Every structure is written in structure tokens, then in C-alpha cells.
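Lab notes, practical 5.
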Amino acid sequence: QQQQQQQGLPPPDLSTLQIQLASVQPSNLPPVTAFDKNGLRVLFHFGANPPHPAICLVVVTVLNFGPAAIGGVQFQAAVPKALQVRLLTPTGTELAAHTTAPSAINQVMLVSNPTRIPIRLKFKLSFTVAGRQVTEMGECSSFPSM
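Output from the prediction step:
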């Protein structure tokens, strides 16, 4: 109902929004694998309860399936000028080596899309593994239509 009331209003400034990870309700859409290389995987889980109809609510999950611990994990995102993106504080920056279950870092990402164009996102994933600094880049356009 709140979304229906906001339908005609422009989306709020992303810098004013604080969304707790625990408050994100999962949607029925399957997660999208944005990155999968050398045991490191990035998944986008789409939230069912965005703060506005023109905002895409995403939980970014970084998983370590590799045999070595990973530190200094940082996920950065950029979108075309018609959109805005904001990443909230991640749950951590360290991923233990894979044992029986992969360790994970979660981070809420908001994408404001007032013109409702297809979302294209470029990302940079930086981390340290075995004492070596690594930077990976990627793109994802597998977002739900708005």
C-alpha cells in the first residue's frame, strides 16, 4: 500500500535511506550470479520490499569457495547517469577459507531508476588473497524490470 501511494512521487534521495539487512524481504526471483572466478562468487538477491517503486533493492552476497582466506574485500558499483546507486555498509571485509560452508559478506545496494530504463551496472571487486592484491571488474544487466 505504501508503494501504491508513492507511485506518482519521485524516488527519495538514496543518501537519505537507511535499510537494515534484516529488514530486506526476499523476492521470488532467483539470485543472479554477477561474478564467479577462482572460488569467489558474487550474487545479487533482489528484495521484495524496496522503499519506492522506482528503487531496486538488492542484497549483494560475496562468497568464498576457495581454499585460502580472503581479506580487504570491497565491492564498488557504478551505473549510467540516468540512474543512481548506493552501497550501504557491508557485514564485513574478511572471508575465511572454504570448509564445509562458504563464508559470506552481505551488503545492501539501492539502485534508483526514476525513468525505469533497463538497469546496467558495472562493478569493481577488490580483495587480498595469499598476500596479493587483486582487482576484478565486471558488468551485470540481469535486473528485474521496473
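Observations recorded by the TA: Strands lie at 32-37, 40-46, 55-64, 70-78, 84-87, 103-112, 121-129, 132-140. Residues 1-5 have pLDDT under 50 and may be disordered.
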